[in-house]
Structure formats: C-alpha cells, structure tokens
Specification:
alpha/beta, Rossmann fold, seven-stranded mixed beta sheet, five-stranded parallel beta sheet, elongated
Length: 493
C-alpha cells in the first residue's frame, strides 16, 4: 500500500516534516563521530527557531540542550522526529513516535531493505507503524532533509544552504549534498533538499506532488535510481510538469549500475528506454549528467519560456559565436534570420564593418551601452524567440577610477569586475523579462584568477541570475527552455 497523494492538496500533510516547529532527535549523541551528534549540531547551528529535544537515555545535556531519557519525557509533542539509532531499535522508535502523536519522522539509519530480507522486515515494521498513525516517514538509509526557508537543517553536511527557489530530491544523500553545495557556491540557494533513501513510505513522486504547490520552488531537480511504482510516478509527474519544470538524471542505466542501485537504496532501476518514454510523455527534462542537471535547474529559476526555437546569438568573439551556432543547430534549434529592419537598426550604431548577420559578432571598440542596444534590438524583433549572449568581459562597463586600477595586484580591480559583471547580467535579464524572451549568458574569461572567477559567478547568482562558462552549456540550456516551453504550450492547448 502507498499513500495516494496527487497534486494539488497534499501540502498540509507535509507541514510537520518541512515546516516543523519542534524537533526531537532520537539517538542524539555527544560523540562527534556519530550521526546523532552531527544532526543535533546542524540543527542548532542552522538557526532553527523552534524547540529541540535530544533523546538519549545516558545524557542530561547535549550541545547545550537539555536531553531527555525517552520521547515520552518530552513536555510537548514534536512535529518531527529524527531517528538515528541502530536498525534493530528503529521500529520501536517509530512506534514511540506514533504513540506520542508525532506527525513526521526522518529515519537516518541504514541496514534495512537494501541489505536483504531481515532488513526488509524491520523496514516494513516501521512503515506499518507510521501509516497506522497517519505519520509520514522519510528514508530509511538517508542523509536527511534541508528546509532552508525554515532554517531546518536535519542533514549530514556541515554547511547550511541559504534559501532559494531550487528544490533537490535525490535517492542518494551524497548527490543531494553535492547539488546543494553547488547551489550555494553559485549563490542560488535551495527551497528544499531531500535525500529520500530507501523510500519505504514516501516515494519520489510524493515529494514532487508537494513541491508542485510550493510557492518557494521554481524548479525541481531529481536524481533517480529506480521506482517503487512507475505508473503512479507517471501520473503524478505528468501533472506536476504542467505547473513547473522537473529535471531528472536517471542512474542505473547499465547492468552494473542497476545492481549497484539495488544494494544502495533497494531501488529496481528498470529499463532506461522506459524512463526515456516516461520523460517524453510527462514533460520531464532528462539531464545527461549531474553538471547538466544543475545547469538546467539554474536556468529555470529566472528565465522566461521561449515561444519558439529561433535563436539569436550575440558574441564578443567570432569563434565563440561559431561554436554556439553549431551547438544550437545540433540540438534542433534554429538560427534566427535577421530581417532587413533589424539590420537597419543595428547599422545605426554599430561600426560599418560589423558582420550583418546572426551571430552578431561585437567588433572591437563597441561601447557597453551599444552591446545592450544590440541585445534589445534583437529581442524586440519578431524573428527571435531567445538569445545567447557569449562573453561578458568586453561588454563590462567600468568607471574611470576602476579603469585606472586595471590589472592592479590589489583587490580593487577584482571588485570592479564583480560589480560590472553583476550589473551587466542584471540588465541582460531585465531585458529578458521586458520582452518575455530568455537571454542565456555564458562567459569563459571573466578574469585569469580562478578565485575571482568563482567570486564573480557567486555574486551573479546572488543577484538572482546565472552565468554559464561555455557556449555549449548555454545552448543546452536554451534547448531545454524551448522543449519545456513547447510542453507547457501543448498542455494548455
């Protein structure tokens, strides 16, 4: 039996889990080597505002918090219980939660169905107790959850991802952590991160159904090893993608990978061709790898959807424009043909020797304001559905004082680059919103320092925008925007 959640209308059931006011940690520990210590530390240092109740029969205090011998000693009923005890003790802990009236539990402990029949029996005991009490259960065999908007960090990593609009749901704790960390590094943040583990109770599609109605989530990223119920996943996913994009990476494509998935999270990987069909029929965007997965998710946070596949390219270097054009065409996009009126308007302010075609190759000496005029001219035309902007550095606008420090060893010039890059990308995305057409930005040479490059990309992300590093990445993102835009259009037709 499974919970038959279907969007909309399932949000309140998940509030004790993702919007918990009070949390109990069963198996809390003072030993830094144990999960019970790490979970308690992260919950405290993350700034959780509610009451925290460590449960440990041998402790009076843990990390400055009063400890309780049993859950029954806690003076109120927690919304959420985090369980980090040995597998043999986990079913009893879940039953205690049910009797106490706890509405949600996250079972961190491993050693259940992924190890065989005996582990499967223990897992079934937990699920039976949870469902009888109407309690939702995450895991077991998982890294936990992060709900950044609530400052609820019940997870293994030592960092705290800031709030954002990107949701991450993975059948692997390590991959959740990797994607969450990448979102933090790029300045984007997350709305929710879930390591679903064995999915004994809640399945991937249950989280999708919840996130479909979450106003803080713009796009959902998934790492999938297999399905408990492929038909149910299909039904729910098809409804979710009508509301917001879902991007998925499917592992277990080879016999070796499928075998590993079974021992990792007890997931039956299933046919890769079947998953391809599910994606096509539900509107899920399938990522080629985790890098691609993150890049697509980042784009959907803020970009408008194109109404067609005619793409304009503006580039600060001819070679980058050629590469971008090749990638676009290979992905099924079309190079927009610039009409005479658009060329006439560009002639009015570009040097006489500009190339008069698409891609528009910005010639040496083009003023930063002219660069933005080029972009706006293309977006304003009826023959361009979306635009790639390749190469930020030549288009950055600096003050006279900043130019005097160009190339200086101190940090003044580096700060100038960050400021100018953030401002340019902000204005480019302002034009995207104004004309309701996506502008995907890529730049491989912001500055020679890797540290400065990372700082600039982070600052751009914090401003609510994204800059990719290579033309092919920008083309892949644009192709996904076009594909999803067509899906939404077809669904509304």
């Amino acid at each position: 039996m499974t919970h038959d959640f279907s969007p909309p209308g399932n949000s309140e059931r998940f509030h004790p889990l993702f919007k918990a006011r009070h949390v109990a940690l069963i198996g809390a520990s003072g030993n830094p080597k144990k999960w019970g210590y790490v979970m308690l530390r992260n919950l405290i240092t993350g700034g959780f505002a509610g009451n925290i109740y460590p449960i440990n029969p041998d402790a009076d205090e843990l990390l400055g918090k009063k400890a309780y011998k049993t859950l029954y000693d806690v003076p109120e009923t927690p919304d959420l219980a985090v369980i980090a005890v040995p597998p043999q003790a986990a079913p009893s802990a879940v039953r205690d939660c049910a009797e106490k009236g706890v509405r949600a539990a996250v079972v961190i402990t491993a050693g259940f169905a992924e190890l065989g029949a005996e582990g499967g029996r223990l897992q079934d005991e937990m699920v039976t107790a949870a469902r009888a009490a109407g309690m939702v259960l995450v895991g077991p065999n998982c890294n936990g959850i992060m709900s950044p908007w609530e400052k609820l960090y019940v997870d293994f990593p030592s960092y705290h991802v800031p709030p954002g609009n990107l949701a991450v749901v993975c059948q692997s704790g390590g991959i959740v952590d990797g994607l969450a960390r990448r979102s933090m590094i790029r300045g984007l943040g997350c709305s929710l991160c879930v390591a679903s583990g064995n999915e004994a109770d809640l399945h991937m599609e249950d989280y999708l159904a919840y996130l479909a109605d979450d106003p803080r989530t713009n796009v959902i990223l998934c790492y999938i090893e297999g399905f408990k119920d492929a038909d149910r996943f299909y039904r729910i996913a098809r409804e979710v993608t009508k509301k917001k994009p879902v991007v998925a990476y499917k592992a277990g494509k080879t016999p070796a990978g499928a075998k590993a998935a079974l021992s990792h999270t007890a997931s039956v990987a299933g046919s890769d061709a079947v998953f391809d069909g599910i994606c096509r029929q539900t509107g899920i965007l399938r990522a080629k790898n985790l890098h691609h997965l993150f890049n697509l998710g980042a784009a959907f946070i803020h970009q408008p959807l194109p109404r067609g596949k005619r793409i304009g390219i503006v580039t600060a270097g001819g070679g980058w424009g050629v590469m971008a054009a090749d990638e676009c065409v290979s992905l099924g996009l079309e190079m927009a043909v610039l009409p005479d009126e658009t060329i006439r308007r560009l002639d009015a302010f570009l040097p006489a020797w500009w190339n008069r075609g698409n891609p528009v190759d910005l010639v040496a000496g083009s003023a930063p304001d002219d660069v933005l005029r080029v972009v706006e001219t293309l977006l304003a035309g009826p023959d361009v559905d979306g635009l790639l902007f390749i190469g930020l550095m030549p288009a950055l606008k600096f003050t006279p004082e900043e130019l005097l420090h160009r190339g200086a060893p101190d940090d003044f010039w580096g700060q100038a680059i960050v400021r100018a890059a953030v401002e340019l990308v902000r204005r480019l995305n302002g034009l995207a919103r104004q004309y309701d057409k996506p502008v995907v930005v890529a730049s491989e040479h912001l500055i020679s320092s890797a540290e400065q490059e990372a700082r600039t990309l982070h600052a751009i992300g914090q401003s609510g925008n994204v800059c990719y590093e290579m033309p092919y990445e920008a083309a892949l993102v644009m192709a996904a925007l076009v594909t999803y835009g067509q899906w939404v259009s077809d669904c509304r037709a």
